[in-house]
Amino acid sequence: MELKEKAKVVITVASLVAVTILFVTEYRRRRQRRKQTSSLSSCYLHSELKPQFGFKRVLADNSYSEFKHLKLVDASSSSLEKPSNGHPYETEITVLLENPQIEFGFLRGECSLEMSDSYVWVETESQLKELAEILAKEQVFAVDTEQHSLRSFLGFTALIQISTHEEDFLVDTIALHDVMSILRPVFSDPNICKVFHGADNDVIWLQRDFHIYVVNMFDTAKACEVLSKPQRSLAYLLETVCGVATNKLLQREDWRQRPLSEEMVRYARTDAHYLLYIADSLTTELKQLATDSSSPDDRFHFLLEASRRSNMTCLQLYTKETEDFPGSAASSSIIYRHLNGHGDKSNISLNAEELVRKLCAWRDLMGRIHDESTRYVLSDQAIVGLSCKQPTTTEEIYDTIAHIDLATESSPSLSSSVQSPYPVICSHLDDIYKMILDKLAKLDDLLPVVLKKCLGTNGTCPISVFNYSLLVNFKTKLSSHSAPKQNGHKNFKQQFTRKASRELFVKKFSCKAPVYHNCRIYANDGRLLCYCDKRKLEWYLNRGLAKLVEENPPAIMLLFEPKGRPEDEGNDFYIQTKRNICVGCGEGKHYLRYRIIPSCYRVHFPEHLKSHRSHDIVLLCVDCHEVAHAAAERYKKQIATEFGIPLFVRRVLDSKEAQGTSSLVEDESTGDSEDAGVSPLHLRSAAMALLRHGNRMPSSRREELLQTVKMYYGGRDLSEEDLEKALLIGLSPHERRKLERKKGVSFKHSAEVAGMDKQEDENNDGEALADFEKIMTVERSTVVDDSGDGTSEGDGAKELNDTQCNGNTLHQQNSKLSLLGHGPHGKQIVEYLLREHGEDGVRDFCQRWRKVFVDAVHPRHLPGGWNVSHSGRRDFGEFSVYNPTKRLSTE
């Protein structure tokens, strides 16, 4: 009995303790939530001191203004010719690309692979100056950086590791942020080699934070590329070359903390300490590979190639990402991925999508004001949850965000000490509450209201070097991209319709997979020939013309001597990796192929001046595509005027039925040429209407349309078969097949459609663009010479084909050119250029189009080696995919 009594007492006490704990926990949670949701007048930054707020000056603030690069004070004339925001050391880097400096060793004497415990922690200005003096005496030193991005909008460099032959230095860039320019001279000295591994990000981070530009670099990752190493990571090199294991998970640690843990210090030192030894080992392999080469002239080729690729990285320039409207890219991505994930948009209200846009814009602005990453402010999953559930109280908003972040485990690992929702949300819950209840202004007016509340005269948030500029240029940013305010409801509807159409077009026509695979083709002596896609690699492998030398990413080595080498063209474009982003603005979420030289001209170029050469095919986002296409259409007008060749064929005649009329078409002096024939568009429209509705339309209208068709057939009586043939006039084979599939059109008599040539025309991208132009209501230029004579007083094509003068033509039934587009115009332009100026005329013509593209788009992300003056010449080897002889034999 006593045992039972004791058990009851224990159970009772345990129950009371459990209930008490639950009660206290719930009480504290509610108290904390009331405290967080009620204290909206104060920002958490008043009590939390972020390390970067000690910076007195930042080069890349959180405003919408573009980043300004260093401008060197130079009285020479050459400096005046550089772009206003170009690379300040472009001349020095170009010299290194042409004459690499590699006649030195990365090591001096014996080198021990054991890393001692001694290192120098640099945290004062005097120590930094001493370091600069030490480095100025070196021929080479190794560099690595550690970044922090979670608690910063743009991110910043938290630590720089520098290693010489004798010592390791860890530079506290948080303490020394404002004086880091002390190291600029040694980093830009072309006589000192800086060794990095995978420096693509390090280069632009140093520019962004300190205006430090790297000149003369050896990148061990680029050396791995040249050597075709199975892996290129630093961890792989440390293990295989030095026998050292490293924990790369430490890269994600919070490098702002001071002091650093012993484990973090060792990791940071390891990344730079062994780089000189690794670089020396790799250069030995490169020289040995060159020595084994069949040609003695190529002895240093592989080392030169690694050096050249390394220094190409130095030419990169940091740019801020830009958007049409704050948060627009994120909102479009969220709506596409989450709300339209199943392809069913019927259950998604307009209000929910508009709230997503508001929350993304608000999140973007909050990140800029508080210098926090957007993922730290509010997760994508939380935005979706708030937009769909639309909680009605601040407590429900708080709980919704907390539960979603907990369920999806989206909370960043670095913030494990801070429970979700994060401080930004807790300090500004009222903003989200008002957005959900639609009490805040519409999207265009939302951000100025929030900005004034946070940073205004009585603002709740502290002003810092990161957000001060927002007050200066925020109004300019919005005024240049917002919708007009007059007739607000209509304009908002038009704006939303345009956004929806844009998203639809992106979803339908943008590339569904990466365009550039960056596969490599090597010559049989190991020299890199080009980067290409997987299909081209498979072509060589399937025919036994190459062997696979690397699988990820794929690389092959040719088993025969290729006809040409990259240096034969004097251009490095084809031996550069290419990024799958818009070359204009850097957009990476969607992109389309864009032909810089329009297809209506390029299709008629000689084979060796086109043959799938990718130099003039670039990737553009929808917005940059619009700009480039509009500029191209305007320039086509100028071309048409300059050469006296109209863009469109204005009239067509049936050559069999109108022999007596054809003389009028050929004779420019009669003045009657404009009365002969009929517009191909009017002819098709009339034939279509007669076939579909001829028996039901008023007799007067039917007679009017019949007269239009008769003008093509020379005035004779028409049969139904004639109408069917008229419907096909001027169409390319592709357009004819497309018409055949269209509803409401049937061909009872004409067998011509079924027997059409199955070859697709080359201008598929143009059709997609035409659809887009209709959706986006972009002004499309139409060029018709209304003067009646079709001639130009300038230097033009004065000797035209006599069946195509004045934009008129005797229709050729088997033509593969569409008369409804610019095909005939392009063909005549190219024929004239080849006849009068030869291939040099075509090359000059291409350069003109590249200049039009550059002037219109101002591309900041073109691949290395892209050049307006690119020659485009190509010779074909015996086994080339594009050898004209092989093409003819396969056809």
Automatic annotation (TrEMBL):
<dbReference type="Pfam" id="PF01612">
    <property type="entry name" value="DNA_pol_A_exo1"/>
</dbReference>
<dbReference type="InterPro" id="IPR036397">
    <property type="entry name" value="RNaseH_sf"/>
</dbReference>
<dbReference type="GO" id="GO:0000175">
    <property type="term" value="F:3'-5'-RNA exonuclease activity"/>
</dbReference>
<dbReference type="InterPro" id="IPR044876">
    <property type="entry name" value="HRDC_dom_sf"/>
</dbReference>
<keyword id="KW-0472">Membrane</keyword>
<feature type="transmembrane region" description="Helical">
    <location>
        <begin position="6"/>
        <end position="25"/>
    </location>
</feature>
<dbReference type="InterPro" id="IPR002562">
    <property type="entry name" value="3'-5'_exonuclease_dom"/>
</dbReference>
<feature type="domain" description="3'-5' exonuclease">
    <location>
        <begin position="119"/>
        <end position="287"/>
    </location>
</feature>
<dbReference type="GO" id="GO:0003676">
    <property type="term" value="F:nucleic acid binding"/>
</dbReference>
<dbReference type="GO" id="GO:0000467">
    <property type="term" value="P:exonucleolytic trimming to generate mature 3'-end of 5.8S rRNA from tricistronic rRNA transcript (SSU-rRNA, 5.8S rRNA, LSU-rRNA)"/>
</dbReference>
<dbReference type="InterPro" id="IPR010997">
    <property type="entry name" value="HRDC-like_sf"/>
</dbReference>
<keyword id="KW-0812">Transmembrane</keyword>
<protein>
    <recommendedName>
        <fullName>3'-5' exonuclease domain-containing protein</fullName>
    </recommendedName>
</protein>
<feature type="region of interest" description="Disordered">
    <location>
        <begin position="784"/>
        <end position="810"/>
    </location>
</feature>
<keyword id="KW-1133">Transmembrane helix</keyword>
<dbReference type="InterPro" id="IPR012337">
    <property type="entry name" value="RNaseH-like_sf"/>
</dbReference>
<dbReference type="Pfam" id="PF00570">
    <property type="entry name" value="HRDC"/>
</dbReference>
<dbReference type="InterPro" id="IPR045092">
    <property type="entry name" value="Rrp6-like"/>
</dbReference>
<dbReference type="InterPro" id="IPR049559">
    <property type="entry name" value="Rrp6p-like_exo"/>
</dbReference>
<dbReference type="InterPro" id="IPR002121">
    <property type="entry name" value="HRDC_dom"/>
</dbReference>
<dbReference type="GO" id="GO:0000166">
    <property type="term" value="F:nucleotide binding"/>
</dbReference>
